[in-house]
Amino acid sequence: MTAEELIVEFALTRLDHPDLDFEEIAALLVRRGGPERELEFASRNLADRGELRSASFPAAVEYVLRVVLTLRGPSD
User: Fold this and answer.
1) Is 38 in contact with 56 (CB distance < 8 Å)?
2) For residues 51 and 49, what is the distance between their CA atoms, to the nearest angstrom?
3) CB neighbours (10 Å) of residue 44?
């Protein structure tokens, strides 16, 4: 999944669940993706950070949040 695809999926999920915060939406995306997606995101997090600071699920959620916040750009 590319970063752009991840952003689109995040945005659509946010539209469906406007009451959730960003971390809850990221966790929902990771859960929906299943174990393969969780490991994919956790491994990308490891590659980006150079270390794995948590279990695979929290690392995958961290990766999703980092991509979303990075591509979102600076706040106004």
Assistant:
1) yes
2) 5
3) 18
Reading phi first (left if > 0) and then psi (alpha if -120 to 50, else beta), residue 75 is in beta
pTM: 0.84
Residue 4: count of CB within 10 angstroms of its CB: 10
Tens of pLDDT, residues 28-54 = 999 999 999 999 999 999 888 888 778
Distance from the Cα of residue 21 to its chain's centroid = 13
pLDDT of residue 10: 95
Closest CA to 68 of 2, 8, 7, 5: 7
